[in-house]
Amino acid sequence: MARKTKCRGCLVLDESKKVKYNNMYFHEGECLNKHIDHKKFLEKEQEEKDELYYKLVRIHGLEKTTDIPPLFYQKVEDLRNDNWILGRFDKKYKRGVRYSGISYTYDFCEEKIQAALNKMKDKPLLEQMNYSLGIVRNHMADAFNHLKKVNKQKQITKKIIDSIEEMKGVREKIKQVQKNSKQDDIDEKVNLVSLFD
Ligand SMILES: [Zn+2]
Question: Which of 1-5, 92-96, 125-129 is predicted least confidently?
Fold first, then answer.
């Protein structure tokens, strides 16, 4: 009888064949794939979180991320986990706002934040940070709309650049054909239509 092993994905203990991954057993297929996807998700999450906290260090003139008050961390986590924003944006924001979305909004309203911080230099750090996060929260919708617009503009610009590149290619072809036709037969007509195939 085969040895029973527990799948770390579905937690079922059985004798079925499993694959070993990072010293854990998984049913091949769905259970393992889900685990890998989740791992990737967490890695990306950590990356975005780090980026946000480095941004906070810079904006608030701190030395290191551990200078950020723990109570403030909690506020950011609330924003990340809460669903308060659901329905106002794309439905795929299933778990509140992503860290990268918060980061982007900090950039988006940094001028406003710096202006506000200038006026509250005597206040405790937590108060300053809460205030700036409040500005961020109020501008989240604007920031996302702005990002959407920018992305659309980028797509349009890319299309224009692509068509310019394409035209350059066509011009080269025309030159080449003209050069060849001069050499071969001066009366031969260049069929330009074929160049756009
Ligand atoms: Zn399983």
Answer: 92-96
Amino acid at 194: S
Global confidence as pTM = 0.70
CA distances from 174 to 58, 120, 151, 167 (A): 54, 66, 35, 10
- Model confidence pLDDT, tens digit, residues 22-41: 999 999 999 999 999 999 99
Nearest partner of 56 among 43, 42, 69, judged by Cα: 69
CA of 6 to the centre of ligand 1 (A): 8
Place of tokens 């992305």: 151
3-state class (DSSP) for residue 25: strand
Tell me the CA–centroid distance for residue 3 and ligand 1, in Å. Answer: 16
| 191 CA distance to ligand 1 middle (Å) | 63
Residue 73's Cα: distance from chain center in Å? 21
